Amino acid sequence: MTRDEAEAWLRSNLDVPRETLDRLVELEAATIEANSHQNLIARSTIESFWSRHIVDSAQLLKWPTGNGPWLDLGSGAGFPGLVVALLTDRQVVLAEERRKRVEHLQAMIKRFALAKTSILQGRVEQQKAAPFAVISARAFAPLERLFTLAQHLASPDTLWLLPKGKSAASELEVARRTWQGSFRIEPSVTDPDGAIIVATGVQPRRRR
């Protein structure tokens, strides 16, 4: 997916205006510049930035997510969290443990004047916050461990949007042994081998 194709997808699927597309162009430039100082994204993904990082993040907004706060676990370079913040007017919380990544996210929040975006710094399992309406995580942890670390930040109504690669089905099979809820696997629009695990009502499975 080229940049032109990515912009067309964003316009047709999410009705993204020209002004916001320009801000995404700025995000691309800022991320690539920062990447020369620390390893934020794989260099191999720079040429496919709009597909691999912008649309890959934005596609999570295809699902009805309500208006409550959105938590992005292991936000790293800011994907999908920063893209969600730029495309919506909702409260977005970026959870990140690594100091240099936190500094990068702080710089991006300031640069784009994202008043409703904040950072939770530290280990996810040690965070205390009200339940989030949406929890996303990209390349954060295997599904079973992800639920274990973050379930205290969710409610039964929380929508989990979890991009995965080829491992989606196998991770979900393992997670179902100890977790229950409504789970489905949706195809990724950016990666024919990728998938998104969409879940609600996630809770520990009762032991018999």
CATH-defined architecture: 3-Layer(aba) Sandwich
* Strand and helix order: HHHEHEHEEHEHEE
CATH homology superfamily: Vaccinia Virus protein VP39
Anisotropy-based shape: globular
The CATH topology annotation reads as Rossmann fold
Summarize the structure.
The chain is α/β, with parallel strands linked by helices.
Architecture overview:
The chain has 208 residues and is of the alpha/beta class. It has one domain: Vaccinia Virus protein VP39 (Rossmann fold, 3-Layer(aba) Sandwich), CATH 3.40.50. The protein has seven helices and seven strands, in the order αααβαβαββαβαββ. It has a seven-stranded mixed sheet with strand order 3-2-1-4-5-7-6, sandwiched between helices. β6 (179-187) and β7 (195-204) form a beta hairpin. The protein is globular, with a radius of gyration of 16 Å.
